[in-house]
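Give me the 3D structure for Lysine--tRNA ligase.
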Amino acid sequence: MTDTTASADAVPAEPTEEDVFEQKAVRLAKRERLIAERTDAAGGAYPVSVGVTDTIPALRERFADLEAGAQTGVTAAVAGRIVFSRNTGKLCFASLQSGDGQRIQAMVSLAAVGEESLQAWKELVDLGDHVFVRGEVISSRRGELSIMVSDWAIAAKALLPLPNMYTELNEESRVRSRFLDLIVRDQARQTVRARAKVNASLRRTFEAHDFVEVETPMLQTQPGGASARPFVTQSNAFDTELYMRIAPELFLKRAVVGGIDRVFEINRNFRNEGADSTHSPEFAMLEAYQAYSDYNGIADLTQELIQNAAIAVTGSTTVTWADGTMYDLGGDWDRISMYGSLSAAAGREVTPQTSVEELAALGAANGVDAPPHATHGKWVEELWEHFVKGGLTRPTFVMDFPVDTSPLVRDHRSIAGVVEKWDLYVRGFELATGYSELVDPVIQRERFEEQAKLAARGDDEAMRIDQDFLRALEHGMPPSGGMGMGIDRLMMAITGLGIRETILFPLVK
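Predicted structure for Lysine--tRNA ligase (509 residues):
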């Protein structure tokens, strides 16, 4: 059995397990033949190198205006993966695909390569193989940019067939076999490159504002910087229990104490919690801290970071999502009060002084629940999500949070019971959060102690007292603004994709 031919008109069926088993056996035999017939170090099924001098994208750019039937007299040598193949007696056609999805046609003719080479092509080359070809660059009679092959070689023999190139893989197949997704689907390749552009843009914006990029520990002796359940591991070298990082915050603040006044990090966080369309146990996180700023200044910076990233990917602050929806990330974004917007939506005033009992009654009347032992702040946030969150359409900073849910944030300068914190909502989900940072070590210790009480009451996401961080604060941290933003979620906001599509290799069961 062979799969070297594919009709341009017919849509091939997805291979069954039996087909795959049979094709692999055939391909293994071809591999053995290639190895047996190897005549030099460059031959065989997996040569160490081939004589590539050109790339498919560069040739397509150089000869973009070549007329149908034209010859160039230019010899090129390229390699690519065969994604289409058709044999017609004395002439074989193949589409070679580069890593970015661009293609060039290889034409292997009896007149150009001879009978022995043409027969070897027909017998040894399969869909999915990486093949090297050298020859003149021409345009076919149909106007397709091609190489009239003078010599060729297998660059890497594929032992398994490609999936159907004419139908999309389902989402489960895409995330489990991303390497295949990247071969067959333009969107997958574009997403990888878009993410690289986003990260490069973030770094350019930070550089323009004199920020310094650092790296902080992923393995920590105690977790901190967020309310989240950590992953636990064991260090044999230190004979101690360690925690995968849930946030870099407390180490980045140590850097600010040490005099790195503008600091940021893009790296991985790990939270041992649920996974859904906006959450992944392992995710990429950006955090940044700026001395002598506050949550207003850091909101301005966050808006600039996101808008610049959108421009880097799409050329505009108006992005087009995967489903065709256009979404405007431009202009100055709305800033609304959490308590004020909740009061307006609920039809009754809710303040930092509203009792837990009153909030629970409001929740019960509207089908809103909260975890056992929920505090005032937890109830306010649950009610806000019920009444307000779903109505946000434009990018919106939700300002001024309850103090008891924000233990690392400075008290509001003029509103009692509130801290200077915002959450940024885009496309219906929380994209980023920002603070006027709490730098008073005495109050920070009190907040940690309150968190310890919550932990004793059964809250497994409550923060622990971090004595080393408190010691750093006692050496003096300047007034600062800070922010955290998920890179995966930023990609979601720009592309309209789900979180598993924005992560190259997401965790799956």
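The CA atoms of residues 225 and 451 lie 12 Å apart. Let me know if you want a second pass.
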